[in-house]
């Protein structure tokens, strides 16, 4: 086959891809949720993805986006917006299940570490705002490239965490067989249920602070408004007042974080309760004070930009500083709930179409999250290998990275050859 034939074949393939994408976009613009084989398959795959993600303690956005984009035929940006609804539904189910059904750990302490959550949330929501604005401004080729790079990094981190857990479980099983863990139940030694509590005392104050911070950012975005949703003062997009309120999120997040950290340190200094000292000191004093806010800020940016909950970044961070796996998973999902819900609200303000379709997917993920927790916890109790779920998530992420990179390259080439605009856009 000579060069002219290759060029003709390439043009024919490009034309077919462009026609398919145009048809998908036409379908997307008319109705976001049509009952057809592609939509049914997307719902089934999303259900399975939510089941796996919930068991692994991650939001699942990195799995939802390729499913919606490739299987359902939605554009990457619409898939990103839809995934925030799905992550919110799945994490809400996970948090409710943790609080109402699983209850506290064996030592009587709650699985969610509220100290970490309350210190990190202001910068987390600030990052979401930056990410959502970036999603509107960035061209699709850049979002695709960044998303593929993030998935590759998340795969590496998740695989490393899974292998460390696998080796730890193997060592625990060997000690049990050798009689080194006399007096401990085999199942308890393998799963590592002791010391899973992460909090202390009554957490109503922390919950009030978390909701207050969330509402503060929410009100600011009600003032700003967006495409398809005017602000309460009918503010001019990209005007002086618009940017003043947008930029004001930075000092507000910094102020909230500084006050919260200061208050936590005062409580640690004044209190003589041993368990409180351990909880706060091991998470805040063992690391520089900026570690949690910076990690939360980066997580929020990725959440808003890619439509993910950020659990793949938060979970490894918590595990690295010695937080027990179950506490790390529960705390991560709790923080992802605030992060994803803020992304969801901001996409609604920005006028994302097809809200009904997004809610249907979210309900499916809500149910799947409970199913995943129940089934996986049973499997872990029988096998004693919680690392199996982590390694499974790593494998799915690796596949998603390949699929996103390949499909994104084809889509960008189609845009380039058709002469579409591929540059940056204004945020409003």
UniProtKB/TrEMBL annotation:
Membrane topology qualifier: Multi-pass membrane protein
Transmembrane segments: 39-60, 80-100, 112-132, 138-156, 204-224, 240-261, 289-313, 333-352, 359-380, 386-414
Subcellular location as annotated: Membrane
Any one GO cellular component localisation term in the record: Cul4A-RING E3 ubiquitin ligase complex
Any single GO BP term: protein ubiquitination
Keyword Membrane (UniProt): yes
Assigned keywords, A-Z: Membrane, Transmembrane, Transmembrane helix
Keyword Transcription attributed: no
PANTHER family hit by this protein: CEREBLON (PTHR14255), OS01G0786700 PROTEIN (PTHR14255:SF35)
Stated family: Belongs to the 4-toluene sulfonate uptake permease (TSUP) (TC 2.A.102) family.
Protein name (Swiss-Prot/TrEMBL): Sulfite exporter TauE/SafE family protein
Species the sequence originates in: Lolium multiflorum (Italian ryegrass)
């Amino acid at each position: 086959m000579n060069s002219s034939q290759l060029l003709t074949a390439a043009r024919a393939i490009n034309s077919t891809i462009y026609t398919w994408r145009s048809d998908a976009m036409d379908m997307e613009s008319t109705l976001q949720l049509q009952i057809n084989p592609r939509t049914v398959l997307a719902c089934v795959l999303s259900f399975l993805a939510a089941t796996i993600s919930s068991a692994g303690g991650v939001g699942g956005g990195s799995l939802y986006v390729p499913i919606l984009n490739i299987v359902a035929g939605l554009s990457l940006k619409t898939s990103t917006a839809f995934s925030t609804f799905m992550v919110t539904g799945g994490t809400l189910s996970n948090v409710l299940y943790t609080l109402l059904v699983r209850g506290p750990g064996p030592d009587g302490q709650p699985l969610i570490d509220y100290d970490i959550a309350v210190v990190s949330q202001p910068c987390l929501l600030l990052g979401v705002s930056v990410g959502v604005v970036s999603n509107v401004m960035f061209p699709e080729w850049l979002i695709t490239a960044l998303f593929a790079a993030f998935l590759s990094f998340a795969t590496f981190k998740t695989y490393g965490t899974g292998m460390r857990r696998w080796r730890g479980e193997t060592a625990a099983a060997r000690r049990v067989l050798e009689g080194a863990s006399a007096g401990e139940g085999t199942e308890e030694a393998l799963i590592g249920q002791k010391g899973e509590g992460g909090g202390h005392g009554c957490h109503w104050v922390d919950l009030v602070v978390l909701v207050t911070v969330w509402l503060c950012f929410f009100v600011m975005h009600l003032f700003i408004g967006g495409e398809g949703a005017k602000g309460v003062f009918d503010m001019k997009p990209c005007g002086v007042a618009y940017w003043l309120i947008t930029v004001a999120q930075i000092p507000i997040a910094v102020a909230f974080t500084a006050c919260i950290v200061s208050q936590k340190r005062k409580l640690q200094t004044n209190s003589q309760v041993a368990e409180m000292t351990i909880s706060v000191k091991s998470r805040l004093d063992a690391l520089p004070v900026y570690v949690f806010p910076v990690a939360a800020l980066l997580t929020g940016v990725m959440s808003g930009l890619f439509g993910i909950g950020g659990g793949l970044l938060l979970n490894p961070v918590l595990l690295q500083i010695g937080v027990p796996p179950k506490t790390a998973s529960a705390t991560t999902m709790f923080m992802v709930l605030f992060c994803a819900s803020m992304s969801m609200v901001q996409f609604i303000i920005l006028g994302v179409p097809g809200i009904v379709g997004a809610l249907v997917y979210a309900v499916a993920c809500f149910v799947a999250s409970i199913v995943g927790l129940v089934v996986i916890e049973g499997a872990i109790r029988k096998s004693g290998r919680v690392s199996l779920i982590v390694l499974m998530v790593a494998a799915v992420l690796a596949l998603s990275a390949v699929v996103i990179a390949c499909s994104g390259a084809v889509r960008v080439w189609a845009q380039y050859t058709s002469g579409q605009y591929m540059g940056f856009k204004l945020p409003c």
